[in-house]
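Notebook entry, cofactor series.
This is the third protein in the set we're modelling with a bound small molecule. For this one the ligand is S-adenosylmethionine. I'm keeping the input format identical across the series so the outputs can be compared line by line later. Sequence and SMILES below, as received.
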Amino acid sequence: MLIHILTLFPQMFQGPFAESIIKRAQEKKLVEINIHNLRNWANDKRGTVDDRPYGGGAGMVLMIEPIYNALKSLKPKIEKTVLLSPRGKVWNQEMARKYAKLKHLILVCGHYEGVDERIKKFVDEEISIGDYVLTGGEIPAMALVDSIVRLIPGVLEKEEATKFESFSGPQIPNATYNILHTRLLEYPQYTRPENFQGQKVPKILLSGNHQAIAKWRQEQALKLTKKRRPDLLR
Ligand SMILES: C[S@@+](CC[C@H](N)C(=O)[O-])C[C@H]1O[C@@H](n2cnc3c(N)ncnc32)[C@H](O)[C@@H]1O
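Returned structure with ligand:
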C-alpha cells in the first residue's frame, strides 16, 4: 500500500512511524508512507499556504491552490483522497478494514482554522477521529495510518489478533453467535502473576478447558459491551 500525507509539519511524523509495527511494515515493504510538505506546492517563494478568512473571524485558513497543486501532482496513482476534519465521518474499525484493502491513499492534514471549503470537490471523504477539535490533522492522520496498516495482511505476526479484538465481531473462533452482535469490546485479558495484591485471575482461565474458556470470553465480551458501549449492539 502506498500512502501520501500532505502536511505543514512533516517532522511530527518522525516518531510514530519510526517505531514498532509500523516501522517493521515499512521495512517489509508492505506499506510505503510518503510525508510531503504542503509548502512545496505554494504559489510564491515564501511558501505561503494560508490566508485570512473571507468574511472575517479568528485565525488563518489553508488555501485551496497549494492543496490542489499537490493533489494534481500525486493524483494519477491515488485511489482515495481523504481530508482529516472534525466535521467528517467518524472513523471506526469497519472503515479501517475497508481502507486496509486500498492500494493508494492520500491524507490531507488541515491546520489553523481549517481548509478552504472548495477542497470538497477534490476529496473523496472527510474523516474525523472523534468529537473534539485538535490543532491539526497530523495526529488524526497518524491514527488512521496506524489503524489501517496493522490490518494489512502480513503486518502482524499473528493475524488472528485482529479478527478477535474489540469492534471485530464474535470474540472467539467459530462462535455461534447472533449475527447482529458483530461489534463487541474485547473480553478481559490476564497474565502473570496469578494473584496480584488479592486480585486473582479468574479460575476458568487456569482450567485448560478451551471450550469453557471460549464461552466465558464470549460472555464477558457481551457483558462489557452491554455495560460500556450499548450503542455497538444496536
Ligand atoms: C483547529 S482544527 C479546525 C477546526 C474547525 N475550525 C472547526 O471548528 O471545525 C484544524 C485542523 O485539524 C484537523 N482536525 C482537528 N480535529 C480533528 C478531528 N477530530 N478529526 C480529524 N481532523 C481533525 C483538521 O484537519 C482541521 O482542519
